[in-house]
Design a protein that fits this description.
Blueprint: H1 4-10, H2 12-30, E1 50-60, E2 69-82, E3 92-106, E4 119-124, E5 130-135, E6 141-156, E7 161-174, E8 178-192, E9 197-205, E10 208-215
Helix pairs in contact: 1-2
């Protein structure tokens, strides 16, 4: 059963899309014995050199001063630098990926025990003590721009599916607080709809994403 707070945070269409893609990927892996499993082929490279991926993003517990959970959209581009990968006799490849993601977070959408309002403006009292004169409401809202920079290690599973792992770093801009950076990491998978188009699911931090990959 899908927790009700996922419907509240991200909406029924987004949850249904994630569930559908996850089931499709699991079904593809379970049918690998009935297909020609590319992962056991003699170092056949994954048939792509460049990938562009528009997607929807969602996240919770953002880095920095932000709170709560949020949704948004973004774009990721990946360039293959090693078509034959790192492991002999395995269909793998290595790429470098860079993206730009926008997310709008709401403090009262927190998945934890609660949210905290934050002071937006201080004034000095006559005795010199700082005094808060303006605070956020219901945990506040926070606008993030992420720039993830990752190394992407891809593995072909079957003719239609592949998986990847992405360690890296995410530069981010939080409105009102400037730029900073946070370690990033993702696990994901693709389900090919055609030779050049695939559905892509990415789970990790600081965001998760679901979108379409166009392979060139």
């Amino acid at each position: 059963m899908i927790p009700m707070n996922l419907y509240r945070l991200f909406g029924r269409p987004a949850v249904a899309a994630v569930a559908t893609l996850t089931l499709a990927l699991l079904g593809s892996v379970s049918s690998a014995a009935q297909e020609d499993v590319d992962a056991r082929s003699a170092r056949g490279p994954l048939p792509t050199a460049f990938e562009i991926e528009p997607h929807f993003v969602a996240g919770t517990a953002p880095p920095g001063f932000g709170q709560g959970s949020g949704i948004g959209a973004g774009l990721r581009g990946s360039v293959v630098i090693l078509r034959k990968g790192l492991v002999p006799n395995v269909n793998d490849s290595v790429a470098v990926g860079v993206g730009l993601d926008y997310g709008r977070y709401h403090g009262n959408w927190s998945l934890s025990s609660g949210w905290r309002d934050q002071c937006l403006h201080y004034e000095t009292a006559p005795n010199g003590t700082p005094m808060c004169t303006d605070t956020t409401l219901n945990g506040g809202t926070y606008t993030y721009l992420y720039i993830p920079i990752v190394a992407q290690w891809n593995f072909g599973l079957t003719r239609r599916s592949s998986a990847f792992v992405e360690p890296g770093v995410a530069l981010y801009y939080l409105r009102g607080h400037g730029f900073s950076a946070v370690p990033a990491g993702y696990l994901g998978g693709r389900m090919r709809l055609s030779d050049r188009v695939a559905l892509t699911l990415r789970l990790g931090y600081p965001t998760l994403a679901i979108g379409a990959s166009f392979m060139l």
